[in-house]
């Protein structure tokens, strides 16, 4: 991994950790699959930290540009499928 996670200086240390855990779950969904419940829990926490749609889009786009992994596609797949493991191809 040769990129940095997008973080805000306004977030607490715990919020930064929680946002990074969400992005790590997105990475895992692409690399080998992630449990749906884990992804859902981390996304819900992410939404408490980044509640606005515009802010969410901005942070997720920054992450996608840096990593190549799309949080949008991952969350969309999680919402559409009820499988135990979410795998993005």
UniProtKB/TrEMBL annotation:
InterPro entries: BH2638-like_sf, UPF0223. It comes from the Bacteria. Belongs to the UPF0223 family. This is UPF0223 protein BpJC7_21350. It comes from Weizmannia acidilactici.
